[in-house]
Design a protein that fits this description.
The protein has 145 residues and is of the alpha+beta class. It has one domain. The chain contains three helices and three strands, in the order αααβββ. A three-stranded antiparallel beta sheet has the order 1-2-3, with helices on one face. The longest helix is centred in the N-terminal third of the chain and has 45 residues. It starts with a helix and ends in a 5-residue tail after the last strand.
Length: 145
């Protein structure tokens, strides 16, 4: 009889422990979920920042390439840069081409792009909103001397 009473006592202690932890999973989830979501959103945001940085670099290079050939104009370079930037949905990009007028005596073309992340963030601009991506590419022109 003593043995049966001992088993019942152990069983009741186990069920009491289960009842006392019944809300523990919900509390643990409530504490860890916001932290996990914060890390997840910041990962997306910084990944998008790298996509925009790479696109700005590529747009500056391709615009300089478009402007270095004989007969090219700054409008050609601006159009090429805008084409690449709009492919990823970049907004409010500032494109500066130096010299502002390409002539036959131009030896170098430089394209600078400033891309504000405040208007180009993926999730919320909290992490990257104050960042302005700057990309510049300078190429020698293909003019015969």
């Amino acid at each position: 009889m003593k043995e049966v009473a001992g088993k019942m006592k152990i069983a009741s202690n186990q069920s009491r422990r289960r009842r006392s932890r019944s809300g523990a999973a919900a509390v643990e989830f409530a504490i860890t979920a916001p932290i996990f979501i914060l890390f997840l959103l910041s990962s997306f945001e910084f990944g998008w920042l790298n996509v925009m940085r790479h696109t700005a670099d590529n747009a500056a290079y391709e615009a300089a390439r478009a402007a270095m050939v004989p007969g090219a104009t700054t409008a050609d370079a601006t159009a090429k840069a805008n084409q690449l930037l709009t492919a990823v949905g970049a907004r409010n990009a500032k494109i500066k081409i130096n010299p502002s007028k390409i002539t036959t005596s131009t030896t170098e073309v430089s394209v600078a792009i400033d891309l504000p992340m405040a208007s180009n963030s993926l999730v919320v601009g909290r992490f990257t909103g104050k960042t302005v991506l700057h990309s510049e590419s300078t190429l020698k022109t293909e003019r015969s001397e």
